[in-house]
Design brief:
mainly alpha, 2 helices
């Protein structure tokens, strides 16, 4: 996962809980998921347009 090992992931998680608090973490995870999903859909649309341009 992005070249990170489990110790780094755990440290990032602990720091996130300390900064944002345990109640805010699910909201942040949801927002991040939606953002990444939208980004992925945008890339897929750009790839489809590029493929269509190559066919024409």
């Amino acid at each position: 996962m992005f070249g990170l090992g489990w110790p780094e992931v755990v440290i990032i998680g602990v720091v996130a809980i300390l900064i944002f608090g345990p109640k805010k973490i699910p909201e942040l995870g949801s927002a991040l998921g939606k953002t990444l999903r939208g980004f992925k859909e945008g890339i897929a649309e750009a790839d489809e347009e590029g493929d269509r341009d190559l066919e024409d």
